[in-house]
From TrEMBL:
Keywords: Membrane, Transmembrane, Transmembrane helix. This is Uncharacterized protein. The chain crosses the membrane at residues 12-35, 41-61, 73-94. The keyword Membrane applies. It comes from Bacillus paralicheniformis.
């Protein structure tokens, strides 16, 4: 259990930065990258968005593992990142005007 709580603050910071980055990206470029499911370019945009997300999250995990050398660093970031993202998404949707 100690391995998962070690450097927990760092995982929280990384998770918050990833969430802010994703939120700002969609605020700035959402209309350009998102498409309705019925549009012709939907599948291409969707696949490009998924590939870009995969590449960026993989880079974030590699960067995090350079800082946190513990055995389960990537798992810890995944769990903490999911929890932080869900909480912040809930808060932002709740207070959306």
């Amino acid at each position: 259990m100690e391995m998962l709580t070690e450097k927990l603050g760092l995982a929280l910071v990384f998770s918050f930065v990833v969430w802010v980055g994703a939120t700002v990206f969609f605020m700035l470029f959402g209309s350009a990258v998102l498409a309705e499911p019925g549009q012709d370019a939907f599948m291409l945009r969707f696949l490009l968005l998924e590939a870009g997300t995969f590449a960026l999250l993989y880079a974030v995990i590699l960067a995090y593992r350079r800082v946190d050398k513990s055995r389960f660093a990537a798992v810890k970031l995944g769990i903490v990142g999911s929890a932080v993202g869900l909480c912040l998404d809930t808060f932002s949707l709740w207070h959306h005007s």
